[in-house]
Amino acid sequence: MDAPSTTPHDAVFKQFLMHAETARDFLDIHLPAELRELCDLDTLHLESGSFIEESLKGHSTDVLYSVQMQGNPGYLHVVIEHQSKPDKKMAFRMMRYSIAAMHRHLEADHDKLPLVVPILFYQGEATPYPLSMCWFDMFYSPELARRVYNNPFPLVDITITPDDEIMQHRRIAILELLQKHIRQRDLMLLLEQLVTLIDEGYTSGSQLVAMQNYMLQRGHTEQADLFYGVVRDRETGGESMMTLAQWFEEKGRQEERQEVRQEVRQEVIQEVRQEVRQEYALRFLSKGMSREDVAEMANLPLAEVDKLIS
């Protein structure tokens, strides 16, 4: 266990309850019947360690036992409060200690949470014990707390949220869209949606900078110059967005920058199919971009852009 006892209460409590047969008698007598039926006290084993905070060890002591509960690992955590006035936060503390015991169990390479039964041994001046042992009663609204913590927690699963729905999420839409697709899709396939969201003006300059940094670090596109050129041109905030070259310079990767830029240019020229360029040119035109800008961004002759317009 931990360091030597610091109080008479601590010393006598541990001297008795660290003894296996004494502990079995204590638990056999004091565990509520429904919990006693769960526990095979013949498997009771004293565990090392304490979950009491250093600042409270002068007022509280604890002992942890492992025990089989219906064939599964479980724990009994006994806390003694040896101060004259009861701690109003004790119910919450015992819940926190129980979670700490669960965490330690998981850290020992287990995949399932064990049942941890907290037990308070009280011998204070006020009698009977004047406080609730239900941690829900400590909340401003116990009933609301029960609804929150006795039900599955809220989940935002962006992987199954339709893109059309994400596009309606105002200021958070651009983040959700990137988080959903950053690993699976060429960023070029998101360009039209990103441009639409940027044009709506919900995203600040600093957020746009963070967005581009994230895309550069985690995203992928075969047409980097084209993609980031369009994104930069749609930026409306006061803070300038980082260019691809600037990003590599800041990372101290000048040689890699040069190689990547050359590779991207070759890929744009040699590998991107003509119909894909035309498709993006039509999208840019529908967003109101000038024919000259469209020709430059889509790497198409101006005459070909004119044909698309007509």
From TrEMBL:
It comes from the Bacteria. GO terms for biological process: DNA recombination. Residues 7-207 form the Transposase (putative) YhgA-like domain. Pfam families: Transposase_31 (PF04754). Coiled coil: none annotated. GO terms for molecular function: double-stranded DNA endonuclease activity. Belongs to the Rpn/YhgA-like nuclease family. This is Putative transposase, YhgA-like.
